[in-house]
Specification:
Layout (H helix, E strand, L loop, with lengths): L5 E12 L2 E13 L4 E5 L6 H8 L7 E6 L2 E2 L5 H11 E5 L10 H11 L4 H14 L15 H13 L5 E5 L7 H18 L2 E5 L3 H4 L4 E6 L2 E4 L2
Parallel strand pairs: 3-8, 3-9, 6-7, 7-8
Antiparallel strand pairs: 1-2, 1-4, 4-5, 9-10
Helix pairs in contact: 3-4, 3-5, 4-5, 5-6
Amino acid sequence: MSGVALEIRGLTRFFRKGGEQIDVLRGADLDLAPGDSVALLGQSGSGKSTFLHILGALEPPSSGTVKVDGRELHGRPRAELDAFRNRQVGFVFQFHHLLPDHTAVDNAAMPAIIAGRRVEDARADAKRRLAQVGLGHRLGHKPGELSGGEQQRVALARALMMDPGLLLADEPTGNLDPSTASEVLDLLLDLNRDRRATLVVVTHSAELAARFPRRLRLVDGKFQEAA
């Protein structure tokens, strides 16, 4: 895994509701070097999740540019964007979005299966990923048989399946108790350090954000360096 460089210029995103335009991002600029680790803070509704969705090619900006390793992201053909999401981006969300009828192994293996790898190979790799996040003993358990922290570890293993260069985490500890939240954050920071993936984590917790070398706050649709 190697991190990606991000160059964001003049990024805007607005929505229309009842004939009114709601501006979320307002000409935001940001540079991230490969392997950077950033915590993103901001009030609810400030646009943090929208920003992650744009970075991960889940939704387009209204205007502005997002360059990944020097190449514009959102002008690419749809098939290429799909491949980018599957192979270069690892998503971790507050709600785990695990398939309830599938085991931890099969949930973690899903990105590789979607990418066309042999199921047997994908499952073998998923077992290794789950062991990396401390779940080697829970491979055959379904989400309903796992704690919240264990489910989030499955989501982490799934995010790592394709060795992405960009890890995006949206309030990944929001539904966890403080001790488990700290453990999950430890895993994310360890992955950033050991694998050099570029890491962007949205969090409402100033305490968790303080553990990151760089902290940003989204205010009035633009980024500010936070103390």
